Amino acid sequence: MKDTNPTVPDHLSVLLTMLSPLRLTRIVDVGANPVEEPPYLDLLHAGGCDLLGFEPHPGAFAELQAQASRHETYLPHAVGDGTEVDFNIYRASGLSSVFPPYEGAFRFLGRSRGNMRRVDGARMPTKRLDDLPEARDMDLLKIDIQGGEVAVFTGAEKVLKDAVAVIVETRFYQLYENEPMLGGVDLALRAHGFQFHKFMFQKAKVLPSRWRDQLRARANRNQVIDGDAIYLRDLGADTPLGDDKLAHLAILSAAVFESHDLVLWALEQLTDRGTIPQSVGDAYLAALPPELTKRH
User: Is 58 part of any domain?
Assistant: First the structure.
């Protein structure tokens, strides 16, 4: 994802300069379709991570390949639990899924079928992340594949043990037949040793009625559809993270999650272990935008 004039935020520069993990932070993005800017873009532009992306949609994969930087590798695999699936390509490529649409959603939400009209599809095998050497030693798994997330977790038992965080799309209102909803995703990730941290955003819409056009949209988006959630490796577990994993957690929290309290928590752990001096945390705090601190 090329950028001719990348700007690295000051607080991120502090971490990338003063922390010294043994390697770059490693991110795996399952469903890397470039319909929106990914949350790790600042870190990628700063040269602070290596990215492995998976995208089975032919057009989206070609676009990713064409704009890839030296820190990006893309593979055209469908990722899952190793079984074969029917991959449905819909008119809006970002909605493509192994699941067919739930007709009730269109009736209730008043959505047009246009974007979820099936234009192509194929029977294809899925790859397990555990079977792919490229996915080893990942620090962050980002996944948005329209309902197929739990199947990916099933095939990623080994590599998930290395991850400090997962960003996953969670569904609140059903859009596809038989898709795992928020509860299913939460149960699966907690079974792998993760705990919910926060939502990055939630998408909601105004429900249709004959009075819909008389409502202010921003004040009446009450039906929540979905949103990206951050899950963290259980930081209260008996076995603490190693120094390098704490460093990667701090970098991800600063650049991707915007969880600055979590950055400082990780830096304090490293300071108390004697791994870094307290001046790293002091410098990070001083570099934060003034609206985030009590500086006057």
Answer: yes
Count: domains in the chain: 1
Cα–Cα distance for residue pair 151/90, rounded to 1 Å: 20
Tens digit of pLDDT for each residue in 258-282?
A: 999 999 999 999 999 999 999 999 9
Contacts 24+ apart (CB under 8 A), 135-139: 135/28, 135/52, 135/159, 136/162, 137/23, 137/26, 137/162, 138/26, 138/27, 138/28, 138/52, 138/162, 138/163, 139/25, 139/26, 139/27, 139/163, 139/164, 139/165, 139/245, 139/248, 139/249, 139/252
The CATH number of whichever domain residue 209 belongs to comes to: 3.40.50
Q: Which residue is it, tokens 């800017």?
A: 37
Structural domain harbouring 83: 24-240
115 assigned to some structural domain: yes
Reported confidence tier of residue 5, pLDDT bands at 50, 70, 90: very low
Mean pLDDT for the chain overall: 92
